[in-house]
TrEMBL record:
It comes from Undibacterium parvum. Residues 24-277 form the EAL domain. It comes from the Bacteria. The chain holds residues 394 to 675 of 675 of the full protein. This is EAL domain-containing protein.
Length: 282
């Protein structure tokens, strides 16, 4: 099929593309309903401190329990939500739900730990500090419960206002970490301008360790430079002991990945908390 678009040039479609567009529209219209009908839910994946072998944080990861398609991955719907603007409401829901969960864990007598929430670049607007304050107050939890994972693309935009918003967030007592580090364009020296506590090395650099000499060199270099600049470092996507041993050797602080746990629901996470992971470090 050939359609003429508004500018008079021709656009070629094939069946696959039609299906792709139909699939998108389907997800797009479903997301608003999902928010109202509470079809989203959070899983939690532990972050483990290498030195102590203990869980020191949980990353909240969204899932969509779709009534007919089953569980949908955020990789499928977050990019669409970012384009349509619905991400603002979704990320607010995540922030609120994570704070509500923190309150439940605190009420259950669990020692506070950080819950890390992913924030889309689009979400990083001037009212974010206020929305964080509101979520913390609504559930009566301390800011120490909360960490935000942001991406490098955020550092590239409108820097002065981004620095100001980050300053307001960290002043509340919420910590910031830089997700998927190494995949964007920010240099470590550029990072000095931002109040970022932790760098999270992207999984793509962890995957090839220890065979891939380049991955080893990149991960090792990020860790040693980050430490000199007083950032903490976490590696994501750690799946085996060889990766763990390498990261331990080069001084990585924290670890997250299937080696310790997949993302799990709040009840399972509570059980993981009582476990000591030190044995797995040997
Ligand atoms: P991310 O923040 O970089 O999260 C890490 C992803 O890697 C998660 O995928 C996690 O399940 C997966 N993962 C963890 N350990 C391993 C491992 O050992 N091996 C492998 N192969 N994968 C591992 P997930 O949950 O599908 O999330 C994908 C992305 O979607 C996230 O990447 C994040 O960018 C985005 N996302 C998830 N939840 C939210 C949310 O609530 N809000 C926003 N804005 N984005 C979210
Ligand atoms: Mg993340
Ligand atoms: Mg990540
Ligand atoms: Mg990632």
């Amino acid at each position: 099929r050939i359609d003429s678009n508004a500018s008079g040039s021709y656009v070629f479609y094939d069946n696959e593309m039609d299906q792709h567009i139909a699939g998108r529209l389907y997800l797009e219209s479903g997301m608003l309903r999902a928010l109202h009908l509470n079809e989203f839910f959070l899983l939690y994946q532990p972050k483990i401190e290498i030195a102590s072998g203990r869980i020191i944080a949980a990353e909240a990861l969204i899932r969509w329990a779709h009534p007919t398609k089953g569980t949908i991955s955020p990789l499928e719907f977050i990019p669409i939500a970012e384009e349509t603007g619905l991400i603002l409401q979704i990320d607010s829901w995540v922030l609120d739900t994570a704070c509500a969960q923190a309150r439940l864990w605190q009420d259950a007598g669990i020692t506070p730990f950080r819950i890390a929430v992913n924030v889309s670049a689009r979400e990083f607007s001037a009212d974010l500090p206020d929305r964080i304050t509101q979520a913390l107050q609504a559930h009566e939890i301390s800011a120490a419960w909360l960490e935000l994972e942001i991406t490098e693309s955020m550092l590239m935009r409108n820097t002065e206002s981004v620095i100001k918003i980050m300053g307001q967030i960290t002043a509340l007592g919420v910590s910031l970490s830089l997700d998927d580090f190494g995949t964007g364009y920010s240099s470590l020296s550029y990072l000095k301008r931002f109040p970022i506590e932790t760098l999270k090395i992207d999984r793509s650099f962890i995957r090839g360790i220890p065979e891939d000499q380049d991955d080893c060199a990149i991960a090792g270099a990020i860790i040693s430079m980050a430490k000199q600049l007083k950032h903490k470092v976490i590696a994501e996507g750690v799946e085996n002991h060889q990766q763990l041993n390498f990261l331990k050797k080069v001084g990585c602080d924290e670890i997250q990945g299937y080696l310790f746990s997949h993302p799990v629901d709040a009840d399972e996470f509570k059980q993981l908390l009582s476990r000591d992971f030190r044995v797995r470090f040997e």
